[in-house]
Specification:
The chain is 38% helix and 9% strand. It is mostly helical.
């Protein structure tokens, strides 16, 4: 599983918003060094890439990221009016 897919999996299984720090701890838990020094930046890039793929990930101020699944067959974010897109 790639780290980006691990972020998506963690967001899917979370029952609350996860901060970039929470996600880094989950993703790099098996790394003896705790992941790269720039782990938080990596998480932010993964979130950006997942959003570009059409995953609706919202940022909750002072709480973290939360995944809002788009039902199968729904329009992708590029087909939504600008006001309805989550960035």
């Amino acid at each position: 599983m790639t780290n980006r897919n691990a972020v998506l999996s963690a967001l899917r299984s979370a029952d609350r918003p996860l901060t970039a720090q929470n996600l880094a701890c989950i993703i790099y838990a098996d790394d003896p060094d705790g992941g790269p020094d720039w782990a938080i930046s990596c998480i932010r890039v993964f979130i950006h890439e997942l959003r570009q793929e059409g995953h609706k990930i919202s940022t909750i101020l002072n709480s973290g990221y939360i995944l809002q699944e788009i039902p199968h067959g729904s329009p992708s974010k590029t087909n939504l009016p600008a006001d309805d897109r989550a960035y």
